[in-house]
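Kindly go through the entry underneath: sequence plus fold tokens. Please state briefly how this chain folds according to its tokens.
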Amino acid sequence: MSRRRFLLRRSLLQRSAALPLVAIARSTAQAAEPARLWNGFSAPVGMGFDRRGLLYVAEWSAGRISRIAPDGGRSIFAEGLEGPAGLAVGPDDALYVGSYARSEVYRFTIDGRRTVHVTGLATPAGLAFDRAGRLLIANRATNEILAVTGENRIEPIIRDLNTPVGMVQTPDGGHVVANIAGGVTIVGPDGSRRDAGQAFRAPGAGVVLTPTGQVFVADYGGTTVREILMNGSSRAIADGLSSPVGLVVAPDGQSLLTATWGDGAIYRIVLADG
């Protein structure tokens, strides 16, 4: 299966040595240029932290999951995958990874043992967990958000989207969905919908909710990470990125990490107070 079916372009990746972790400050008046932490990744997409503070990165082109320790040490956690895209750490601290090419989701224990968790999907992209502990899947080819219920049954919870690649549940029980070819959709708990993607070129799989209830989405087709406001607008909190696609809240709750498809790197964005 062509890798271009998930993301619309691929740039040359930088493979130089890892860079030190550097915090950045951001003005509330305009977006700042993020700080690069590490590079040398092969089309990074999904990211997630486990309870020990280990960061996992799905590398689409390399077919592997890399792991970064709190001290910056890097290792390969799993390899031999086909188009790993979405990645989420579950309430059980297991790692869940979507294979876009094979249309299934895997579950990894902390020691790297892999089992097939869900099959019968259609180009799954972003993964997330809702407040009830259910795994959510952006099933791109069917334009649905799916929930995995008991005994790994699949239940559509949002239909009739436009190429969904990422989502998150909001504190009120609604959802924010990133559609790579159709903007950002705010779905209320009552099912109402509002478009918040006017400023995006092509939203990526990276959609996150912070401990304070803020929602952020990476603009894969552009250069920004943007905060989604529930009135349907958005604002850039970081700029100057090369096709940002992955996004995760750091363990401190005060910063985001974003993975960039264009230069194969991970950057840190410090969130402003308030």
Notes: Residues 1-29 have pLDDT under 50 and may be disordered. The chain has one domain: 32-270. The chain has no helices and 24 strands.
